[in-house]
Amino acid sequence: MMCLRECFGLSGQQVISVFGSGGKSSLIDFFAQCYRNEKVLLSTTTKILFPEPGAYDYLYLNDFDAMGMDGVGITYAGERVIVDGVEKLKMPSEESFIKKLVSFQKVFLETDGAKGLQLKGWNGYEPVILPETTISIGVIPITAFGQMIREAYIHRLQSFFEMTGAKRDDIINEAILAKVISSQQGLFQRAIGEKILLINQVEEESSLENAFAVVSLLPKGFRASLSKIIIGSVKMQRGIIV
Question: What global pTM score does this model have?
Fold first, then answer.
């Protein structure tokens, strides 16, 4: 495997939407550190946990007029909200926020939520992707392989049934994961711009074999719509381009 940063090869000014399950936040944090010597913005179109102080250089919560004028480093921006007693960040509603995206060399947006579960079924409006997006990255964890289809592992179970044709207590296999990725109601249903698939949490030889099996089951037309398929591990910061 090679360095994960090299696998993605992000160059130039980009607005990057990340969605799916099993590593979205970790991937965005990884990218932020990779490009910390540039002007980097992190935010969301849904809701994310409020960032720890060491995760950013600049933080904007209310007035966004000066956002992007601080120089290089990591900027977090959003509106502070409390959800079920947990402090979170949501996308600002002000037009000034969207206008400021061009002030950054890299913008990373978490555009999807899975309630911390391994897989999910999507509503028709998800992921919530801004039209300014230039790169869409879909993330799926290979560690879902072999799990039983139940609420404990899958967010929006009924939508998952409709998307995959699977049933409760079925075992997640390569074919089901391939449907999650390639279905018209699946991972990339609202993706725009350059499309990249990351099969994440591949840290053992067996999981590598499973990931290749999933890729082999993706329809040819769907594969042709992707600019890149990456198998790897955000935790290990390693990957390979398929």
Answer: 0.96
